[in-house]
Amino acid sequence: MIAPARTPEEIREGRRTRQRLRQHTPESKAYHKAWRKANQDKVRAWPSKSKKYNNAQLRAWYDNNPERVQARRLREYSLTRENYDALVAKQGNRCAICNAPPTGKKPLGIDHHHASGKVRALLCNRCNLRVGVLEIPAFPALLQYLCQHHPEFREKVLSVVQ
Predict the structure, then answer these.
(1) Is the C-alpha dihedral spanning 115, 119, 121, 125 positive or negative?
(2) What is the DSSP letter of 79?
C-alpha cells in the first residue's frame, strides 16, 4: 500500500516534531549532569573500555578476513591480484632490500612513492619502515647530525656513496 502524499505543511510539521524530540529539556540535562557527577568512575572508564573493545574487534576482523584485507591493500595501490603475484614471483617472495621472506601472517608490504603513488617493490615491514624514515624532509639534517657525532657512521656513508 502506498502512503498518501503529504502536503508541504505536514512535512514541515514532521520536521519540527523531530527537532523538538531531539532537544534535551532542562530536566533531562540536570539529570544527566547529576548522574555523571555521581558516577565519575564509570564516565572515566568508558572511553578506555570502548577503545580496548573496538581494537579487539578490529584485530579479530583483520585476522578472520585476510583476503578482504589484501584486496583492500591492492585497491589502494591500483594493483590487480595478477600484478601483485607477478611482483611476488619476480622477487622470489622476498624483500627487495634485505632479501628476507615474509614473517608470520604479514605478507610483504607494497612500497610506493608517496607523491606519485607508483609502486616500487615489495618490502618486509622492517625495511618499509626504514624507507619511510628516509623519505621524511628532515633526513638530510639527520645524516648531518649522525656524521658529526659518529665518525664511523660518516666513513660508512662515504664508502656507500663512492
Answers:
(1) positive
(2) -
CATH code assigned to 64-134: 3.40.1800.10
Quick count: other Cβ atoms within 10 Å of Cβ 107? 17
> And the C-alpha cell for 109?
608490504
Give the integer Cα–Cα distance in Å for 111 and 54.
28
Per-residue pLDDT of the chain (162 residues; tens, 9 = 90+): 465 667 777 767 777 776 666 677 888 888 989 999 999 988 887 777 778 778 888 889 888 998 898 899 899 888 999 999 999 999 999 999 899 998 877 889 899 887 788 888 999 988 888 888 777 777 778 778 888 888 887 787 777 766
Q: 148-152 — which CB contacts under 8 Å span 24+ positions?
A: none
Cβ-Cβ contacts under 8 Å for 80 (sequence gap 6 or more):
74
Identity of the residue numbered 44? R
> Could you state, in order of their start, the residue ranges of all structural domains in the chain?
64-134
